[in-house]
Amino acid sequence: MDIYAIRKHNLVKLIGNQRKGACAERWGMAPAHLSQILSDKTAKNLGDDVARRIESVERLPRGWFDSIPQDESVGAVVPHTPTATNEDAPVASAAALVKQMLAKQGKGLSAEARARLLAAADEPAESNVIAADFSRPGQVGDEVWIAHYDVRAAMGGGQVPHDYPEMLQDIRVSPRHLREMGVEFKEHFHLKMVTGWGQSMAPTIKHRDPLLVDVSIREFVGDGIYLFSHGDLLYIKRLQKKGKDHFKMISDNTNHPPEDIRVDDTFIQARVLLVWNAHLV
């Protein structure tokens, strides 16, 4: 078996009796993309980036997809539990480390300063000193992958949508941090990234700005910026309800006047939640 056949074998085993659409959503994949990988009629393979992302989402050991266990009688995939390593070995207490430091480098300290250092090191774990690990972004277990699709939604004349959008570079974020920033959403797997195209929404959204959207919002839920199709083209614009039968399609760039479009001809695909841009300073 080559590496891709092994990955496909493991993917089928991992999915089991689950709904493929639910798996694709959880893994940040387009359902069509997953179907193509599983199909025997296409040559679509499970690539390195997607394999590593699924392993991360399912908490499987890195590289799990790339080999078949000798014991294939195991019927279920068990999430990875880290094994003990030398890093798990007991370390000297804080007080002992401080004493060692003072013995080597503390000769210039006063007796009072030495006493304070030792007292602080002897503080119980319940004290108001909180141990923090700044070596990784976000809280452990609070990072998720957000798929970035090659969908260019026009902020101008409209873009023709792809039938099967392919994913570009995905983004790993903390849902808790997003909520602290004021981004409101129900489930993180409803969040996707697309790209704005054109200048009609400037200065709010500039040409080629990545946008965080919620694909679970498929109808008008109030004034805001939406990703929607109209007349077979894909747009990113502000929408306001105008009467019962029309939307007012608004561009933030004043050089583009608002237009009235029919509600019946407008199909909302997502709501824009955040502009993922960077400004030079």
UniProtKB/TrEMBL annotation:
Gene3D superfamilies: Umud Fragment, subunit A
Residue spans crossing the bilayer: none
InterPro entries: LexA-like, LexA/Signal_pep-like_sf, Peptidase_S24_S26A/B/C
Keyword flag Transcription regulation: yes
The Peptidase S24/S26A/S26B/S26C domain, residue ranges: 185-272
GO molecular function: DNA binding
Keyword Transcription: yes
The entry's keywords: DNA-binding, Transcription, Transcription regulation
Annotated PANTHER family: FELS-1 PROPHAGE TRANSCRIPTIONAL REGULATOR, PTHR40661
Name assigned to this protein: S24 family peptidase
Species lineage: Bacteria, Pseudomonadati, Pseudomonadota, Gammaproteobacteria, Pseudomonadales
